[in-house]
Amino acid sequence: MRFHSLLLLPVLANLTTKSRLERTPSGVGVGATLTQLRAGLKGETCKKEFGVHHCWIGNWEPGRVISDFRLVRDRVSVVAVGYVFD
């Protein structure tokens, strides 16, 4: 976490978790199956890129927020929420 230099307010750029305790309001999180992820999210995109299978909500454009769910053997292994910089 970093702090805004003038206001001393925290500025979050990225949050990553492997905890099974952190969940979306629909219950999607680490340990969820691909089927559960697709049922619990709306508007997700899923791809295998560079050997990584992941699904995300949001837009990979500067100024946007993304929620990314990395899958291993069709189960969510890591969840990352972050702000997209240019």
Could you give the distance between the termini?
19 Å
Strand composition percent: 35-45%
Overall shape: globular
Number of strands: 7
Summing up helix and strand content along with how strands pair, one would put the structural category as mainly beta
Residue-averaged pLDDT? 88
Task: Please write the string of helix (H) and strand (E) elements.
Answer: EEEHEEEE
Q: Strand count, sense and closure of the main sheet?
A: 5 strands, antiparallel
The level 1 CATH classification is Alpha Beta
The low-confidence runs, each spanning 5 or more residues with pLDDT under 50, are 1-6
Description:
The chain has one helix at 34-40; strands at 2-3, 10-11, 14-17, 45-49, 52-58, 65-72, 75-83. It is mostly beta strands and 86 residues long. It has one domain (16-83): Beta-lactamase Inhibitory Protein, Chain:B, domain 1. The strands form 2 sheets. Strands 3-7-6-5-4 form a 5-stranded antiparallel beta sheet, with no helix packed on it. It has a two-stranded antiparallel ribbon with strand order 1-2. The longest helix is centred in the middle third of the chain and has 7 residues, at 34-40. Mean pLDDT is 88; it is low at 1-6.
